[in-house]
Design a protein that fits this description.
With about 350 residues, this protein is an alpha/beta fold. The protein has 2 domains: about 280 residues, Rossmann fold (3-Layer(aba) Sandwich), CATH 3.40.50.150; about 40 residues. Helix content is about 40%, strand content about 20%. It has 12 helices and 13 strands. The strands form 3 sheets. Strands 8-7-6-9-10-13-12 form a 7-stranded mixed β-sheet, sandwiched between helices. Strands 2-3-4-11 form a 4-stranded antiparallel β-sheet. Strands 1-5 form a two-stranded antiparallel ribbon. Helix 9 links the parallel strand 9 and strand 10. Helix 11 packs across helix 12. The protein starts with a helix and ends in a 14-residue tail after the last helix.
Length: about 350
């Protein structure tokens, strides 16, 4: 099925399989800022006018979204990865390492942030592990565990030596029969449907002196407002992330930015029910201002395009567009040929094929 056809079918199913929800703070007061994600999937995005959290409402059914993951469509649409195709080709371990070199090289960030907190005897779990790129950096593969909805990525992880894997979500953690010193949720928390319930499950399987690592997009930056995804239920700023984790009994140990797009945070369990608070009126104002900044620059971009079209005329503008598209296709093809597909994934937004 072609991508445009799939998007059309998805949007039709969304209308029949979605429901209205409240914000995590319990409020129904919100302002809609977007109706579609960047690929045209229906994904109504709102700002809560009580706490400033950005969230999806109405929300698609878990069944609709799980189908999107389980069939590998998330990786194909958002990451240009097709593990099913790679595994069906029966590539050698060395070939797989070369093909996914980009993922493994860029996964070292998490290990660097956590290595001082662990020993070789500690059990480490990643939920939503992908192809186990993050886990592969940690020592002692026998103590590394992963849960992933995409069965082909699980197969890829197993082939790479991470044997303790389960296809599925949070409910599969119980199959491991161990507790963990570290539980990693890297670009997972924004996808969750039942945040409080899932964090309670994590608490159950986390050692009393254990940590959770969370990585997710940072919506204190205006440029991220063009990155909405149909599979994201929440979009966190620094304040809303720390607040809701503390509300669900996790204390912040360390927070920081990663590559000026994402944020990471390390938490420990909080047994004192101490909640982190922020000035909600300022948070709401900040979030709306960031969205307006993004919208302003988008409007300016389109105005400049129309101005060029008006100045040069439709025919010349069309010829220039055809030339630029051809140049971009040639350039990306050249880079793939020389460096390999995974080396250039950071540039995927620059080259619209």
């Amino acid at each position: 099925m072609k991508k445009l056809e799939y998007i059309k079918n998805y949007n039709s199913k969304f209308k029949k399989n979605s429901s209205n929800i409240l914000c995590l703070c319990g409020s129904s007061k919100s302002k809609k800022i977007s109706n579609y994600d960047r690929y045209g999937f229906l994904s109504p995005t709102n700002i809560c006018l009580t706490c400033g959290l950005i969230y999806t409402n109405p929300r698609p059914s878990e069944k609709l979204i799980n189908n999107f993951y389980e069939n590998g469509l998330y990786r194909i649409f958002y990451e240009s990865i097709n593990p099913y195709e790679d595994l069906s080709k029966k590539l050698s371990l060395k070939d797989l390492e070369n093909k996914y070199k980009f993922e493994y090289d860029n996964s070292k960030f998490i290990y660097k942030k956590l290595k001082k907190l662990i020993t070789k005897k500690d059990n480490i779990l990643e939920i939503g592990m992908g192809g186990a790129w993050n886990l592969f950096n940690f020592p002692n593969k026998q103590r590394l565990y992963g849960v992933e909805l995409d069965r082909y990525l699980c197969d890829l992880a197993i082939k790479k030596g991470i044997k303790n894997t389960q296809v599925g979500s949070f409910e599969k953690i119980s199959n491991f029969k161990v507790k963990f010193k570290i539980i990693i949720l890297n670009h997972v928390i924004e996808h969750l449907f039942t945040l409080k319930k899932d964090l309670n499950i994590i608490s159950k399987y986390l050692l009393s002196d254990g940590y959770i690592y969370i990585g997710c997009p940072l919506y204190d930056h205006s440029h991220n407002y063009g990155e909405f995804q149909n599979v994201h239920n929440y979009y966190f700023t620094k304040n809303t992330l720390i607040h809701y984790l503390s509300k669900y009994n996790f204390d912040l140990i360390k927070w920081g930015e990663e590559d000026k797009i994402n944020q990471y945070a390390i938490f420990k369990q909080n047994k004192n029910n101490k909640v982190f608070y922020y000035q909600k009126n300022l948070e709401i104002k900040k979030v709306i201002n960031r969205f307006n900044e993004f919208k302003y620059f988008q409007d300016q971009k389109y105005k400049n395009r129309n101005l060029i079209k008006k100045f040069l005329g439709s025919d010349i503008t069309k010829m220039i567009k055809i030339f630029l598209n051809s140049y971009r296709k040639f350039k990306i093809y050249f880079k793939i040929k020389i460096y390999g597909e995974n080396k250039i994934r950071n540039d995927r937004q620059k080259f619209k094929l």
